[in-house]
Amino acid sequence: xxxxxxxxxxxxxxxxxxxxxxxxxxxxxxxxxxxxxxxxxxxxxxxxxxxxxxxxxxxxxxxxxxxxxxxxxxxxxxxxxxxxxxxxxxxxxxxxxxxxxxxxxxxxxxxxxxxxxxxxxxxxxxxxxxxxxxxxxxxxxxxxxxxxxxxxxxxxxxxxxxxxxxxxxxxxxxxxxxxxxxxxxxxxxxxxxxxxxxxxxxxxxxxxxxxxxxxxxxxxxxxxxxxxxxxxxxxxxxxxxxxxxxxxxxxxxxxxxxxxxxxxxxxxxxxxxxxxxxxxxxxxxxxxxxxxxxxxxxxxxxxxxxxxxxxxxxxxxxxxxxxxxxxxxxxxxxxxxxxxxxxxxxxxxxxxxxxxxxxxxxxxxxxxxxxxxxxxxxxxxxxxxxxxxxxxxxxxxxxxxxxxxxxxxxxxxxxxxxxxxxxxxxxxxxxxxxxxxxxxxxxxxxxxxxxxxxxxxxxxxxxxxxxxxxxxxxxxxxxxxxxxxxxxxxxxxxxxxxxx
Length: 500
Fold this sequence. Notes:
Number of strands: 14
Largest sheet: 8 strands, mixed
Number of helices: 14
CATH class: Alpha Beta
Radius of gyration: 22 Å
Structural class: alpha/beta
CATH superfamily: Alkaline Phosphatase, subunit A
Number of domains: 1
CATH topology: Alkaline Phosphatase, subunit A
Order of helices and strands: EHEHHEEHHEHEEHHHEHEEHHEEEEHH
Strand content: 15-25%
Helix content: 25-40%
């Protein structure tokens, strides 16, 4: 095939992890984190310090990332949500722009369409089934850790050192990504530019880290490093938090140690991919992005996992490099969204825009000081405490202020400049009344909580019927299960109790 690349079109490599707290990076100032490869990526390009997901949950966040749309615009409400094949993603737009779009690993696509614009998928997703309406069938991947990826005490109590199927999966993603880059190097003069997206499961729970990574942090993280449990949190948060009960301090310590270990494990995978990019001679002509789908609370506010609008769950790392084109070591403090990433990459690549995207290109933040940038981002979720206790919620961050709308409940308002830990809710402060009203009006503009509830209920009722159908007919999988072969990909969930 002749070279169809425009002179300004770089190759594009996107690396997306799962559940990476924005602060657990050496380049973000964490004195304990061991992330040398991500740190080098930051030093060689641009680090964004205020990148936010649009929904603090894997599936909706990733579908928003792929489409450049807010979750409510694409009817994406949970990890079971399936976007229609006629919704345009940035993979479609890259293909239209002359690129070869390849997916390696995780993107949380649900249902029979596992491409959504990618022409090839090197590895299926990590769950046992692409049809998540049948439930998280992870027994074959996680063994006795099958009850640890979601909410509940098990994820904390079973934390520690060990090997899991998630580790094997991520290593397989790395192997295939590295091999693809090496093969590409041998034929690069005959092919169009590529978009390669590598998706990882780490540092998502189970909070079980490879023993060498757990041991590395066991002597570096202490019980005193655990965040204090904040007794007063918003009632919408407390409803969830109360279900956990009192968590043993030792289990919380193991969880934090394991999480740092998982970030170290992930950094090694990123390092192998970046090394292959260099060795193949492709690095000088490749735009690289690292980010994650949402964060991890890590015990902040007494909460673990995500599904809250506090910073730990909402803010994600984002590093962007393009040798010779972007300033090295630039730190961008402006608010940007994961929904902005696709439009930005398409803009930089000279590819068509996504017609339905509401996300914006943040190219001005890379080219200049961002004068005129609308420093506002949005996020949403539906807190489901039962059919009669659905709470549609929306977050808006404007400059340093964060507003959180909880339908039918008191809102929250934080000044992150003076209160980065979000310990002082200013929503009842008379001096903030005008700001509160203005931010609420903007947060609810074009977003109707009653409509959201109707759509969510319709979605849940439909999924109940589809789940029964999928379980009955045993739908064939669109991709081979990644763990069927080779043997080394199978789960080894053996763990040893951790000692402080």
